[in-house]
Amino acid sequence: MERQSSARDRLQKKLKKKKEQRSKGTSESKTGIDALDNENPDIFQMISQVQNILRTNPEMVAKVSNCVNSLMSNSDIMSQLTSQIESVQSQTLQTSTSGVEEAAVSKES
Question: What average pLDDT does this structure show over 1-7?
Fold first, then answer.
C-alpha cells in the first residue's frame, strides 16, 4: 500500500510540474485556435508556438512531416495554395503602392 501511495505522489508531482510548464507557455502568448482569431496574426509568434509544441511532443514531428509530405505530393492542393499566395501578394502590392501614392499626394498639397 505504501508503494502505491508513493508512486501516486510522484505521478501527481510530475503532472503538476507539466501543468505549470504548460501554463507558463500559454500565459506568454495565445495558442491553438485563439492565436488564429487575430486579424493580423504574428507569423513569427505562430512559428515559435509550433516549435515549442514540437519540442514538448516529439511524436508530433513525425505526424507533421507526414502531413507536409502528403500536402506537397497533392498537386491540386499545391495549385490552390499557389493561387492563394499570388492573390495575397497582389493585394499586398496594391495596398503598399496605394499607401505610397497617398503619402506622395499629401506631401504635394
Answer: 69
